[in-house]
């Protein structure tokens, strides 16, 4: 009797304590937001050559908290049933339970978002004389692309399509449409113009201008109360941290107090200054660029043009008057 109990304990130990039985793998382990095109997570359970157990089910759970995870089941597969998603999810799913082959549950996302970052757990229920579970865990990190990442991705797209000899224009526009969506929030059309608000923060004025130029635009030139009202409504439709300032067209770098648009070269004649702005009383004032302050009702403030001098989170707003990427609007 004691020998039977001892052997049973050995079998249980081999099921619950061996990493070779269950594996949870994710590729890649870091999401670079907007640039990672595919993410795959696979939980696999090895079959028992001796036939001592069989797999009843596999369940993958997720928690956005990596320090103190509180897991929610997101997908599963059971004997005799097709794999299924338990929550609204953009993932595709595959899986099976098997006695002789590897049992597995696989999820795949196209352009994963911040919702797919966090801690993952896979739990498989095995049947021998009784039910036992085996567990594996992993994490997916989230990384904001930096300026070099964005330009590398856009350059990669451009190089790829320049090498194509057929349907270059159609394919280029389709790919650029995806790139623009990854990098910018896009407004509706106002007065034959459209506005693109960057999703990424803390670029210098020159970098912001270069990104706008890449998509056939320029830093937004706000010229009327109606246009300003449309831009504010656009901002209200999005979530932005309260400390954010949005760089727009306008600078007085040439002559303090004389504001000019960088793209058109015209005088800036419309202002809606926040209290205390512009701060152009000092000869060495470095606040030479125009921005909209989210924390002050989107009113205008003058800020440093160089990112190294900025002590706030900044985004930028492009204006496009003719763009092949606005056809869906």
Automatic annotation (TrEMBL):
- Official protein name in the record: Bg selectin 1
Q: Which Pfam families match?
A: Lectin_C
Tell me the keywords, alphabetical order. Answer: Lectin, Signal
| InterPro entries assigned | C-type_lectin-like, C-type_lectin-like/link_sf, CTDL_fold
Specify whether Signal is a keyword of the entry: yes
Entry GO MF terms: carbohydrate binding
Extract the SMART domains matched here. Answer: CLECT (SM00034)
The UniProt record lists the C-type lectin domain at: 190-306
Q: Which domain of life is it from?
A: Eukaryota
Any signal peptide, and if so, which residues? 1-17
């Amino acid at each position: 009797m004691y020998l039977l109990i001892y052997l049973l304990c050995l079998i249980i130990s081999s099921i619950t304590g061996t990493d070779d039985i269950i594996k949870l793998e994710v590729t890649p382990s870091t999401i670079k937001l907007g640039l990672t095109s595919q993410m795959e997570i696979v939980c696999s359970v090895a079959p028992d050559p001796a036939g001592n157990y069989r797999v009843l089910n596999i369940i993958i759970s997720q928690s956005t908290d990596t320090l103190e995870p509180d897991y929610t089941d997101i997908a599963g597969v059971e004997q005799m049933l097709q794999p299924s998603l338990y929550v609204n999810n953009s993932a595709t799913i595959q899986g099976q339970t098997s006695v002789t082959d590897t049992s597995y549950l696989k999820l795949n996302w196209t352009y994963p978002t911040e919702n797919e970052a966090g801690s993952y757990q896979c739990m498989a229920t095995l049947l021998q004389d009784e039910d036992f579970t085996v567990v594996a865990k992993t994490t997916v990190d989230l990384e904001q692309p930096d300026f070099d990442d964005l330009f590398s991705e856009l350059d990669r797209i451009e190089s790829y399509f320049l090498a194509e000899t057929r349907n270059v224009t159609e394919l280029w526009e389709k790919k650029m449409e995806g790139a623009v969506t990854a990098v910018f929030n896009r407004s509706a059309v106002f007065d034959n113009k459209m506005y693109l608000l960057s999703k990424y923060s803390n670029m210098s004025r020159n970098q912001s201008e270069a990104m706008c130029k890449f998509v056939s635009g320029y830093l937004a030139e706000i010229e009327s109360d109606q246009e300003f009202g449309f831009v504010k409504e656009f901002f209200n439709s999005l979530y932005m941290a309260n400390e954010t300032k949005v760089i727009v067209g306008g600078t007085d770098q040439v002559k303090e107090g004389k504001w000019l648009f960088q793209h058109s070269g015209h005088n800036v004649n419309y202002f809606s200054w926040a209290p205390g702005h512009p701060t152009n009383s000092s000869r060495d004032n470095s606040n030479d660029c125009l921005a909209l302050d989210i924390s002050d009702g989107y009113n205008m403030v003058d800020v440093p043009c160089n990112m190294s001098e900025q002590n706030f989170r900044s985004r930028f707003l492009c204006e496009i008057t003719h763009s092949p990427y606005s056809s869906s609007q």
